Amino acid sequence: MLITIIGSGNVATHIAAALKNAGHRIGQVYSRDFQNASLLAYHVGAEATDLLTELRPDADIYLIAVKDIAIEYVAAQIAGFGKLIVHTSGATPLENLSKHTVNAGVFYPLQTFSKQKELDFRQVPLCIEGATEQITLQLIALAQTVSNHVYRVDTQQRKILHLSAVFACNFPNYLYHVSQQLLAAHQLNFDLLKPLIRETADKIQHASPASVQTGPAVRNDVKTMDAHMQLLTGDAFLQNLYLLMSEGIMKMEKN
Amino acid sequence: MLITIIGSGNVATHIAAALKNAGHRIGQVYSRDFQNASLLAYHVGAEATDLLTELRPDADIYLIAVKDIAIEYVAAQIAGFGKLIVHTSGATPLENLSKHTVNAGVFYPLQTFSKQKELDFRQVPLCIEGATEQITLQLIALAQTVSNHVYRVDTQQRKILHLSAVFACNFPNYLYHVSQQLLAAHQLNFDLLKPLIRETADKIQHASPASVQTGPAVRNDVKTMDAHMQLLTGDAFLQNLYLLMSEGIMKMEKN
Q1: Using the beta-carbon criterion (under 8 Å), do B245 and A241 form an inter-chain contact?
Q2: Mean pLDDT confidence for B39-61
Q3: SS3 of A49, please?
Q4: To the nearest whole angstrom, how far is the Cα of A148 from the nearest Cα of chain B?
């Protein structure tokens, strides 16, 4: 496949590299920032541009990995090519593309990417949706060239997935930050918690989270929870957060 | 060392196995539940009992790994032996032992244990405190026979560590549960999120959580946050949690 990558952020970078490694050809890379476009283009052997008007109509697929708010604008600019346009966003309906072209699809990688951190793309779940069954099958085939975990996920399910990912990734990462700050305030090193953080994420790979829940709240250990609230005196925000999370844990059902 | 293990739960089980593997001898295992005592005793080649009065005074160390609330009671029963008594609790002051004996210490493994899940004990951080410098050094030496990560941590620091662990482990695990429930309500498989959960915990092993925070809140993406709140309509608890976590993320400083 000849693929044009629109965007040069974390998602664009990892997908472009994965497609390239799988033997596809990246023709052009677009970014508003020419430096960023050039850097990614260099890595995947493509041509860089910072002008949408310089995109050529020769690619098989135009893969849009830009900020959600810019997806529709970009799609409208290139819809005239009559080629397949896909976006990579968890929070954006297929509709935002398909009102501009019948050749629309979604290629959503459910993972958190950082440019500086390598990961095994074959383990990244790819969530596929197409405006037609033919497009869906074409995108599934493409997705299988780069990942072992390809799912059909429609717009409504993708919204739920994206929301769930916020709970399973963005919020836990924030809690890691809170714990780091608590330790730092008492001259304790965050390294102490790292094995625990990794093990907590490992455990639920093969057991339901409810079945491995630990800590004072699930034991209904009011004395320890009180002691923790005492330690958080002066930080009303963290006290609120502690109470709310503990309330949730106390009412969870084991399953 | 000849060691007596008091308790047969997750912590007792993992510590006893690690000590045994390091070449120490486990003389007796006590549990209120004789079956549990027997099972653990069998695994570590020890004798089982469900009576504190059957504990012999011949061990070098009595390691108490029972519920926090029972630690002091147990300590009072065996203080007469005049031997070293240590507890394994993050939330319990050394004081609870040292009011009964001068031979008191803490041997706190900062990890989440499940009996059914193996882990590499050499990677478990062990937090050591002793009533005297001599005891501290003796416990550090013992700890180093089973772990590569041994720290001196006093009672006040241990309290903060324990609280931080609740934020870094218990609360994230609850959020995994929430995401699983959200997916299940829409016929989506929790497996979809597992690579993301693992990667999120992996990322902070070598980067600060603030530097790798992703999601709508850190981007100040109000439109997506509104859409998520809409999806949570009817669940006031999760809406509250979503708002509070997002508020925290929006005000975090990148560092």
Answers
A1: yes
A2: 97
A3: strand
A4: 12
- Best mutation target, A112, A153, A157, to test chain B (most B CBs within 10 A): A112
Quote the pLDDT of residue B254.
Answer: 61
pLDDT mean over B38-64? 97
pLDDT at A114 exceeding the cut of 80: no
- Type of residue found at A211: S
DSSP symbol at B120: -
Whole-structure pTM value: 0.89
CA B106, CA B158: separation in Å to the nearest integer?
10
Query: Which residues of chain A from 129 to 148 reach within 8 Å of chain B, CB to CB?
Result: none
CB contact under 8 A, A169 and B197: yes
Instruction: Say how far apart CA A201 and CA A59 lie, in whole Å.
Output: 40
What are the angstrom distances between the C-alpha of A190 and each of A59, A135, A186, B125, B208? 47, 47, 11, 11, 9
Whether B222 and chain A come into contact, CB under 8 Å, resolves to no
Which candidate from A182, A209, A247 shows the least CB-CB separation from B180? A209
Cβ atoms of A61 and A128 within 8 Å: the answer is no
**Look-up: residue for tokens 């596809």?**
A24
Residue A32 pLDDT > 60? yes
pLDDT band at B216 (very low <50, low <70, confident <90, very high): very high
Cα–Cα distance for residue pair A13/A153, rounded to 1 Å: 23
Q: State whether A168 and B160 contact (CB < 8 Å).
A: no
pLDDT digits (tens, 9 = 90+) for B7-18: 999 999 999 999
Rounded distance, CA B129 to CA B143, Å? 11
Which residue in B150, B100, B147 sits closest to B129, CA to CA? B150
Average pLDDT over residues B146-165: 95
Q: Which residues of A touch B194 (CB under 8 A)?
A: 204-205
Cα–Cα distance for residue pair A35/A56, rounded to 1 Å: 20
Q: Are B128 and B136 in contact (CB under 8 A)?
A: yes
Looking at beta carbons, which residues of chain B come within 8 Å of A231? 159-160, 163
**Regarding predicted confidence, which is higher, A91 or B83?**
B83
Q: What does the alpha-carbon distance between residue A213 and residue B174 come to, in Å, rounded to a whole number? A: 7
- Cβ of residue B110 closer than 8 Å to a chain A Cβ: yes
3-state secondary structure of A76: helix
Which residue intervals of chain B are DSSP H helices?
A: 10-21, 34-44, 68-78, 95-98, 133-144, 155-165, 171-184, 194-203, 222-231, 236-250
Query: E strand or H helix at A17, and its extent?
Result: helix A10-21
CB atoms within 10 A of CB A163: 26
B109-119 residue pLDDT tens: 999 887 777 88
Which residues does chain A have within 8 Å of residue B161's beta carbon, measured at their own beta carbons? 183, 188, 192-193
